[in-house]
Design brief:
525 residues, alpha/beta, five-stranded parallel sheet
Amino acid sequence: MKSICLYFQVHQPYRLRTYRFFDIGERDDYYDDYTNRFIMQRIAQKCYLPMNKLLLDLIKEFGSAFKVSFSISGLAIEQFHTYAPEVLESFKQLAKTGNVEFLAETYAHSLSSLKDTDEFTRQVEMHDQLIQELFGQKPTTFRNTELIYSDKIGEAVANMGYDVMLTEGAKHVLGWRSPNMMYTNAINPKLKLLLKNFRLSDDIAFRFSLQSWAEWPLTTKKFTGWLNEIDKKDEVVNLFMDYETFGEHQWEETGIFDFMAALPAAIFKNTKFEFSTPKELGEKLQPVAPIHVPYPISWADEERDITAWLGNDLQNEAFEKLNALAGKLPFVQDEKLRKDWQYLQTSDHFYYMSTKWFSDGDVHSYFNPYDSPYDAFINYMNVLTDYSIRLSKCSVDMQEEMDDIKDSVKKISKKTSDVIKKKVSTTSKKVKTAMEKGKEFSFEDMKHMSDAAIKKVLKEMDIETITIALKDTKDDLTERVLPNLGAKARKKYDDLQTELKKVKKSDIKKYQKAVADKLNELFGK
């Protein structure tokens, strides 16, 4: 049986207030609280609350047969907490049904995947944890900001442990192939890809109320007829769209809610389709081929590329200036500076600077609170300039604090140096004696070795061998080895802890001997 995968994006940015040149250095309240509250509460009443109720009613009516999936940005969730807590509660009610999958994405709905893999990973992990805390689900499916995808981005997502990723079924990527199949990442085939059927998705999201459209009005009978025309070899139709389609972009008066309320029954009655979540599709569908995407694609505009955000000099300059500050962030502890860093990365700020007023001008202008792209650029750069000043001041303060710490360390180092030297000498003697006497090294001898020596061993051994060898060993040995693992190796080690819960003692000894053999090979006489 063929599947329909319904996926909705939920996101609201923190919009900036008018921030003039003379505000720089004087105030750091960057956000238009009134507008953000007004828009969130308006969309809550027009879209989120009625649509969540509609979906909950459909789940009650059809049980496990009806399923949907969501990704909700961290910034949208923050604003639910602040301005519309009842919306968050309604999403929690949907989560409790077991019929709704919540996907991972970047916390700030950012473009970090295009520039900074470390920042990208940090935001995804932050969002993943939030979804687990709110909805009790560990995401296994990933959806990047605006469905942005490339081979390299997919590889990074696979390395984070996700099984499935959503992206656009762009014609220039697929060529003659159908978007209605499961594909894989070209670099790491473990990552499965679900591609948006943009024609059927956009029939609902963009053309539903367009009276100049030849197919207007759209009815469930017409839509299910199109589904039945899908090639017999196709396996899944992915309907991906903004959740704000319902009630905000397409007003209630257009009949969009009635259409959605009637669609599942029409599909069950008139087609051989069933509803599935991305996770379920990842488990039951076999990929037909990898797709090669050397340059980033997205679900935006006719081009299905990233020019809606990084398509002109204004956008590129703002993006580069923002990312130039990234190196100062790792050591910043100030909570407001870190929050502002999140909020200023939101892709919407760059979208407002778009000059694409031709093929997709009506779409861009609908979402844009500024009179012109230039106004959006000036306002953002004024804010970014002030933020940069605050960040630099914080960095100077941090440097002074580090200098104080260094002075303190120097003062106490003299008192402790003799103790340290004695300990190092004792450890060195143990290793040296073993070498002089021709005694073979044992696995336990790793705890007497230097960090450099341990890292040399770890570089020569695979992480699974190290993980099994460390099973049931004393804490002092484990604590000596683990800090010398790299970030990827440590993540793999943590994952293996759950996978390798039960290991035979004979196997542990075998792997410990393998490590000991490597010690003797590297450091023995």
